[in-house]
Write a structure and sequence with these properties.
This protein has twelve helices and 16 strands. It is of the alpha+beta class and 440 residues long. It has three domains: 14-60; 66-223, Galactose-binding lectin (Jelly Rolls), CATH 2.60.120.430; 240-438, SGNH hydrolase (Rossmann fold, 3-Layer(aba) Sandwich). The radius of gyration is 36 Å and the shape is elongated. Strand 2 (86-89) and strand 3 (96-100) form a beta hairpin. The longest helix is centred in the N-terminal third of the chain and has 59 residues, at 2-60.
């Protein structure tokens, strides 16, 4: 009995010892598994952190935010072409060959986050090579899905590569938005989403067609410190009386007539008022060195004249006098008077800057039309009168003279079936009034 009890006790002891050993092994296995699982969890969390850090770093890289986005523009297949323009790959990689007039536009997507590295970019730069002739190339940039469009013109001379830098302030927004590019309250540079060359214009001075031309571009990029191309300068503008004195002394005189189709001549070519005025002045003062040139373009607004100011007035030949008659197309776009007035003031600043204050300015409130156009221009005319008074500039009040024409005589003043454009008789009327003003 005792022997049997001892055997049962030994067996129980062995069982308990084996059970304890099994528990120890199980605990060790569980402990090892826990350590492995903990390691994997920590590794996974660390991997997440590293991945996040890498993504933030990549998003902040300057090259991915600036250079890469603009390199995407080098594929000519992605460009939209209109109005007869074309774009193709150049002879070397990274070169685009553009033919104008017309427009070529390329838009690119922008991410749904602020591209911090864009915020210090102050303008656009690229290299350009012309076709041997001198041109002014229209350049435009787009922001926020092209809702905001900004324009400028850049000069291209000869056929050698030249560096072009355009500060954001050199671009003009051709609508009533006053948002600047960049800055604390402007359109963020991070929203840059496209580039274009060319514009809608198929006509130039006196409504003559724009001749086709080509150029090449490369190295498109955003830059931090572009050299501004326009800086306003202040000069005292000479009065029109100084031009009259030159004509009295029979000195060479150059007069530009600037504006829209009213000046460029719709249905009137050889006998627009600029041509007639030149003949009258030359005859009156008795010499042929008086040149009156039309630089007006049909369809132009005061916005367009702002954009063209460098092209029109920065050359080596400066006009002695420029007459400005604009507004008919602004009113057709329903522009507020204050916006129109701001454009004209900026235009005057640009003319004064590019001519170094050597050109006299004669403001002409655009004429009232007939029928539904009869009173539309009144507020614009008042704005021009106010500008002339505020800036001490000469004014010929064409609007008043046309308003004084009896209604029964208006049909002969305007082109047939036209409520706005002067006929040959209308151009003769304007020429006679300007001649009287300039023969004081």
């Amino acid at each position: 009995m005792d022997k049997a009890n001892r055997q049962r006790g030994n067996a129980m002891e062995i069982f308990q010892r084996n059970k304890s050993n099994a528990n120890m092994e199980t605990k060790m296995i569980i402990s090892k598994c826990y350590r492995k699982i903990s390691f994997l969890i920590r590794y996974w969390k660390l991997t997440q952190k590293i991945t996040f850090i890498i993504m933030v770093f990549i998003c902040s890289l300057n090259i991915s935010a600036a250079d890469f986005e603009l390199k995407a523009l080098y594929d000519p297949k992605g460009w939209h072409k209109s109005l007869g323009a074309s774009i193709a790959a150049g002879d070397e990689a990274g070169i685009l060959k553009v033919k104008l007039p017309g427009t070529v536009i390329r838009t690119i997507a922008y991410p749904w986050h602020i591209r911090e590295s864009f915020l210090n970019k102050k303008g656009l730069a690229f290299k350009i090579r012309g076709d041997g002739k001198d041109h002014y190339i229209p350049v435009r940039v787009f922001f926020l899905n092209t809702h905001f469009r900004y324009y400028t013109y850049v000069p291209v001379k000869g056929n050698d590569w030249q560096e072009i830098q355009i500060a954001w302030d050199d671009f003009l927004c051709l609508n009533d938005s006053s948002f600047e590019i960049g800055g604390g309250h402007g359109i963020p540079v991070s929203a840059f989403c496209g580039l274009g060359f060319g514009d809608r214009w198929q006509l130039t001075y006196a409504n003559t067609p724009v001749s086709p031309f080509t150029f090449e571009v490369k190295d498109l990029r955003l830059v931090e410190n572009p050299i501004p191309r326009y800086r306003r300068k202040k000069f005292k503008t000479p009065a029109v009386a100084s031009v009259i004195e030159k004509m009295k002394k029979r000195q060479p005189v150059l007069i530009y007539c600037h504006g829209d189709s009213i000046t460029a001549g719709t249905n009137v070519k050889e006998k627009r008022y600029a041509n007639l005025l030149q003949n009258e002045l030359s005859k009156y003062y008795g010499y042929d060195a008086i040149t009156v040139k039309t630089i007006a373009v049909g369809g132009a607004t005061s916005y367009d004249l702002q954009l063209w100011a460098e092209k029109d007035f920065s050359g080596t030949v400066k006009p002695d006098l420029v007459t400005i008659c604009v507004g008919a197309n602004d009113i057709n776009q329903a522009r507020p008077t204050l916006s129109f007035k701001a454009s004209v003031n900026d235009l005057l600043d640009r003319i004064i800057t590019y001519t170094d204050g050597k050109t006299s300015i004669l403001l002409i409130p655009t004429l009232p039309g007939q029928m539904w156009h009869r009173n539309l221009m009144d507020d614009y005319a008042k704005a021009i009168r106010e500008i002339a008074l505020d800036r001490n500039l000469d004014l010929y009040d064409l609007a008043k003279d046309v308003a004084d024409i009896p209604e029964k005589d208006l049909k002969s003043f305007f082109c047939r079936n036209d409520t706005l454009h002067p006929s040959l008789s209308g151009h003769q009327f304007i020429s006679e009034k300007l001649f009287s003003f300039l023969k004081k």
